[in-house]
Amino acid sequence: MKNGKVLSFTMGCEADPTSRVKVVSDGEIIRVEGLSDEGEPFTIDFELPLEGLRQFQENVKPFLTSSDDVDLENPTNYDWTLKYKADGMEMSTNGIISSANVFKDMKVNILKTLYEVQQKYDYAMKNGAELKELVDRIEEKAE
């Protein structure tokens, strides 16, 4: 992973740092770091082009509801922060997650969304490679 961050996303409970889930991207790889429900640390890398990153951002927007009254001192308060940089544009938003159950749902949604976007791009790249191979064979026969 390169040094420059294009996207940085964290969520969890301020009072419990072990609950935090971090999503970072350099524009080529999206890395998810956190702890499983059993308390084991995990890191998952998704290889996605910048367009895939934008797709991920669009897909997570519906379940990130912004709030201006983020109270990080409240131990039952889960929070999220999303920072995004691309094409010279920078964006940062934050908000609260109302309960531990909503937090777990969001964690699952983020991973599910990344898997779906990854599959979409893997499929597109595979189809692109197969199409190129077919075109190459047709061109060979034409010669």
The profile of the biggest β sheet is: 6 strands, antiparallel
What separation lies between the terminal Cα atoms?
Answer: 42 Å
Q: What is the approximate shape?
A: elongated
What is the helix/strand order? Answer: EEEEHEEH
Q: Please state the structural category.
A: alpha+beta
Provide the residue-averaged pLDDT.
Answer: 69
Number of strands: 6
How many discrete structural domains?
1
- Count up the helices: 2
Poorly predicted ranges: 65-72
The percentage of residues in β strands lies in: 25-35%
Radius of gyration over alpha carbons?
19 Å
* Strand arrangement in the largest pleated sheet: 4-3-2-1-5-6
Residue share in helices?
25-40%
What does this structure look like?
It contains 2 helices and 6 strands. It is α+β, with helices and mostly antiparallel strands and 143 residues long. The chain has one domain. Strands 4-3-2-1-5-6 form a 6-stranded antiparallel beta sheet, with helices on one face. A hairpin with a 2-residue loop joins strand 5 and strand 6. Helix 1 runs antiparallel to helix 2. The protein is elongated.
